[in-house]
Write a structure and sequence with these properties.
The complex is a heterodimer.
Chain A: H1 3-23, E1 28-31, E2 42-48, H2 55-65, E3 69-75, H3 81-86, E4 91-96, H4 107-117, E5 122-125, E6 130-133, H5 142-151, E7 156-157, E8 159-163, E9 187-188, E10 193-197, E11 204-208, H6 209-215, E12 231-233, E13 239-242, E14 246-248, E15 266-270, H7 276-287, H8 291-306, E16 316-317, H9 321-327
Parallel strand pairs in A: 2-3, 2-5, 3-4, 8-15
Antiparallel strand pairs in A: 1-4, 5-12, 6-15, 7-12, 9-16, 10-11, 13-14
Helix pairs in contact in A: 1-4, 7-8
Chain B: E1 2-9, H1 13-25, E2 30-34, H2 40-49, E3 57-59, H3 70-86, E4 90-97, E5 101-102, H4 106-114, E6 120-121, E7 125-126, H5 154-167, E8 180-181, E9 187-189, H6 190-197, H7 202-209, H8 219-227, E10 231-232, E11 237-238, H9 255-261, E12 265-266, H10 274-281, H11 296-310, E13 336-340, H12 342-345, H13 349-357, E14 360-364, E15 379-380, E16 384-385, H14 388-393, H15 395-406, E17 411-415, H16 424-428, E18 433-439, H17 443-449, H18 453-474, E19 482-487, H19 488-493, H20 496-506, H21 526-535, E20 562-563
Parallel strand pairs in B: 1-2, 1-4, 2-3, 6-10, 11-12, 13-17, 13-18, 14-17, 18-19
Antiparallel strand pairs in B: 4-9, 5-12, 7-8, 15-16, 19-20
Helix pairs in contact in B: 3-6, 6-8
The chains are: A alpha/beta, B alpha/beta.
């Protein structure tokens, strides 16, 4: 990397911080409990809109994992999500009426909050339908992982988005509040992920999976990215660039080994394909607030009408993280 | 017999206190050194927490201990001296860290040492024989000056080392000492330790080792060689280092492994591993006959981790393993065969090969219409789609995914110049690939299509060019694939021999005997077809000496497969 491109990226990072500062005005405090955050606490950041039914399980899942404090940006929910979150002791909530799209799909809001509150903390940035699964997660709490990463001087960890789907039509089995979504959507594709390297930012670009084959077989380039870097030991100079797919400074994207070895990595189980999906797709198409004119949702809707089943005879049923490790979707690296 | 424990603590003081109490309660004295970088308040808390054990627990003078600094040795010296002075009943001193976890009752250790009263347990290896030094410095640790910190100013450190190498700097090792290295965690007998600490030469030794790099791994290790009468060069503490030289950490799930290791202590335990601390700090029965320390299974676990971190799984491309070209440690997971021209000459070849070799045989995986998976499936193992668009978007991922998903099964697929050629170079450089090619066979379907020659001619020229490019690629010096090539004429002259060869390549363990050849297509008039191509100005080059009358005389044409690489 030459000096010019280094400066270019530096400039871009400053731009992201500037954007975050400008968009900070969008947010209004609903419940600020950041005073309770202790040194060394693990924080979770999330934006959401109308996800009330998913919240109880989500919070429970991450509390049990060892997250100490939650940050939510509520984008204009009208189903009681905001009030529900504001009632909890370990949650700080901000609300906004402004455009998700104009805030670069929420990135600006979270970058701003992280810059102010996350410095020096391990930070998990996820959506309400994403569930972090890391090596040894059934035996060791999240703090064991972050302590280990810190002892190895690792600042960020990769977690590929793994789309989970049910057998049979999506929405055949309704999701109840508090239920583990993977009781319904327990299937995934084990080996159809397409990887290439992004030269400028140095991150990997992963596409494919069930969404790739079912919705984007004719336009593979537009298929959604599955590479994510959700776990970071935050510094106030860091910034997410495009969702949690890539970061600046560029060194944080260096979560993979280039010489044949395996670094430790995790997965984000994606519980998108539940019965709530149909209504969500309708709404998002109408609002047009998602990436590239909600192209993703339009493609889904077209295909979902004809072929509502993502399941095939080669789908794998989810068991545990060890299964994902053996299949090569994640790795323990040298953590043993 | 009594063992004295010296503990060097710098974090997780609450755990260190628990361990110290554990030893003291069994009647063995403990001297604790707390890093001077720890703030006064936690230190005070530690003292108060252990106030009830005042009889057997002492605190030694505090030093600021940075990684690899002399102060670590100074702290150890002070604490050991205090131990020897205050507790005359102590016959062995066991050096532990605050993150050490006792695995067996102190009584066991005392009994073990009582049987070996003069033995010093310390890993001590000559510099030329250690293979594990980080930074590649072994004897140079003892000869150079190290004004810069390796951790904080790596560049300056490296620069200083290089400069001294160039200038041939050689500090003299004090007389009577032979540099040795080893783990920091030892257990020394009282006579040896007294000899080291009360030696008249000690000021000279200390002055020298103050300038050695990482003296905590060499001070005692070197001096025991001078003063000890009986050295067991191994540690009684279980520890494992990763590829960066940092100790592996033990968690709750290692409980049974640690139990079975039969070591006396382990370093280092995660401070929040409640189950481990509960299990090992609970009073345990002493005196059970137990084996010598044996790291067997733990060794295997951590060796596997190192292997995974450095080499990874061959043929796997994923979010945290995406090797640069030619640094893959295995481009693909297992072997696979690529057949070009076989199904054109023998329409029943796929079924025949499946039957004979008992492998998975696909059609044209890289065909222009779709990926023809075995059995005509539209989605294959792992969720691979047969969509040509999807495949052509990233053909390398498609191939490596297929091989990875179906491992350890051997995959075979048909190939041809009309297929996507984007992964040819990748396959050519892959030792797992086995190519079998009948050159010129692509002309057979053209001939049988019955289309007018004018239309076929340019297509034939294109296919021939593509095939020649592939052959050229497979002839490169860097080609690692196993390649067998026959021209169409050679193959048709003696089909049995090439078929026997490819069948053996595909199923080496089965080694099936080929007794019958699958039916060949009817090629009457093909010789004339080639001639008319020539007449139209296209020169067929890759078919070999195809007879104009389509008749092969087996005697005058010796067909031998030739091996390109």
């Amino acid at each position: 990397m030459g000096l010019v491109s280094t400066l270019q990226l530096r400039l871009r990072r400053e731009m992201w911080h500037l954007r975050a500062r400008r968009r900070a005005g969008d947010l209004s405090v609903v419940a600020n409990r950041t005073g309770r955050i202790q040194r060394g606490d693990i924080l979770l950041f999330c934006t959401l809109r109308n996800e009330r039914v998913r919240l109880p399980f989500f919070l429970d899942y991450y509390r049990r994992m060892g997250v100490n404090h939650f940050f939510f940006v509520d984008n204009n929910s009208d189903d009681g999500s905001r009030e529900y979150l504001a009632r909890q002791d370990d949650i700080s909530v901000w609300g906004t009426q402004d455009s998700y799209k104009r805030a670069h799909f929420g990135v600006d809001w979270l970058n701003g909050l992280q810059r102010r509150h996350a410095h020096g903390h391990w930070c998990l940035t996820v959506d309400v339908d994403e569930f972090f699964v890391y090596p040894f997660c059934d035996m060791r709490p999240l703090r064991a992982l972050t302590d280990w990463l810190e002892s190895c001087s690792i600042r960020s960890m990769s977690a590929m988005l793994l789309d989970m789907y049910p057998q049979g039509p999506i929405g055949a089995r309704p999701y109840r509040e508090g239920q583990d979504p993977f009781e319904i959507a327990c299937w995934f594709d084990s080996g159809n992920y397409l990887i290439s390297r992004n030269g400028q930012y140095g991150n990997l670009w992963i596409q494919g999976g069930p969404r790739g084959r079912a919705f984007f077989a004719d336009a593979p380039k537009s298929a959604p990215a599955l590479n994510k870097i959700p776990l970071v030991r935050w510094h106030r100079n860091y910034a997410y660039v495009s969702s949690t797919h890539m970061m600046l400074p560029r060194g944080l994207n260096n979560v993979y080994d280039r010489w044949g070895g395996e670094k430790a990595s995790a997965c984000l189980l994606h519980a998108k394909f539940l019965d709530t999906f149909g209504a969500k797709a309708e709404e998002e198409i109408r609002r047009g607030e998602h990436y590239a004119q909600s192209r993703e949702y339009i493609a889904y809707k077209e295909r979902m009408a004809q072929e509502p089943d993502l399941w095939t005879r080669w789908s794998e049923q989810y068991v545990n993280w060890r299964q994902l490790e053996i299949l090569g979707l994640m790795s323990k690296g040298n953590w043993a | 017999m009594t063992v004295g424990f010296v503990m060097l603590c710098h974090t997780a003081l609450d755990r260190a206190a628990e361990v110290a109490r554990h030893w003291a309660q069994q009647g063995h004295p403990v001297v604790i050194h707390v890093d001077a970088r720890i703030r006064p308040r936690p230190f005070r808390e530690l003292r108060t927490a252990l106030a009830d054990q005042r009889k057997l627990i002492r605190f030694s003078p505090r030093h600021r201990c940075h990684w690899g600094s002399w102060n670590l040795v100074a702290a150890t010296q002070d604490a050991s001296a205090l131990m020897l002075k205050e507790f005359p009943q102590v016959q062995h001193v066991f050096l532990a860290s605050g993150a050490c976890l006792p695995l067996r009752p102190a009584g066991d250790l005392a009994a073990y040492l009582a049987e070996r009263p003069r033995t010093d347990f310390i890993e001590s290896v000559t510099t030329s024989e250690v293979g594990w030094t980080i930074g590649g410095l072994d004897i140079e640790r003892f000869q150079f000056f190290f004004p810069f910190s390796w951790r904080r100013h790596r560049r300056l450190f490296d620069l200083a080392v290089r400069a001294q190498r160039r200038l041939r700097v050689r500090r003299r090792v004090p007389e009577g000492l032979v540099p040795h290295l080893g783990s920091q965690w030892w257990c020394l007998s009282r006579p040896t330790l007294e000899a080291i600490l009360q030696s008249p030469d000690r000021p000279r030794h200390d002055a020298y080792f103050k300038r050695v790099w990482i003296p905590d791994e060499s001070y005692f290790q070197t001096l025991v060689r001078r003063y000890s009468t009986q050295i067991e060069s191994r540690s009684l503490t279980l520890f494992k280092f990763d590829h960066q030289g940092k100790p592996h950490i033990f968690y709750d799930d290692h409980l049974s492994l640690l139990r079975r290791s039969d070591y006396f202590a382990a370093r280092k335990a995660w401070p929040h591993a409640d189950k481990l601390y509960d299990a090992f700090l609970r009073p345990q029965a002493t005196g059970e006959p137990r084996a010598e320390p044996n790291p067997g299974r733990i060794d295997r676990l951590f060796t596997a981790a190192k292997e995974r971190r450095l080499k990874g799984r061959a043929g796997l491309y994923m979010q945290s393993r995406f090797p640069t070209d030619n640094f893959e440690n295995g481009k693909t997971a297992v072997s696979y065969s690529v057949f070009q021209g076989f199904s054109e000459v023998m329409p029943g070849f796929i079924d025949w090969l499946t039957h004979v070799t008992e492998t998975r045989v696909h059609g044209h995986l890289f065909g222009p219409e779709r990926a023809e998976f075995a059995g005509g499936e539209s989605i294959y193992r792992g969720g691979l789609s047969d969509s040509a668009r999807l495949r052509d978007y990233n053909p390398k991922s498609f191939l490596t995914n297929l091989i990875w998903n179906t491992r350890p099964e051997h995959q075979c697929f048909m190939f041809g110049p009309a297929d996507n050629q984007k992964v040819n170079a990748f396959m050519a450089a892959d030792p797992n690939a086995r190519f079998a090619i009948i050159t010129g066979a692509w002309a057979v379907p053209l001939y049988r299509s019955g289309q007018p020659l004018e239309e076929i001619r340019s297509e034939a020229a294109r296919l021939q060019r593509v095939e020649m490019e592939l052959l050229d690629l497979l002839n490169q010096h860097w080609t690692k694939a196993r390649v067998r090539v026959w021209s169409l004429a050679e193959f048709l002259g003696h089909p049995m021999e090439p078929l026997q060869t490819v069948v053996e390549d595909t199923a080496p363990r089965l080694r099936p005997r080929v007794t019958s050849v699958p039916p060949l297509v009817d090629l009457t008039g093909f010789g004339a077809f080639l001639q008319s191509l020539r007449n139209h100005g296209m020169q067929p080059l890759v078919m070999g000496d195809y007879p104009a009358n389509d008749l092969f005389h087996s005697d005058d044409q010796q067909s031998r497969p030739y091996l390109v690489s």
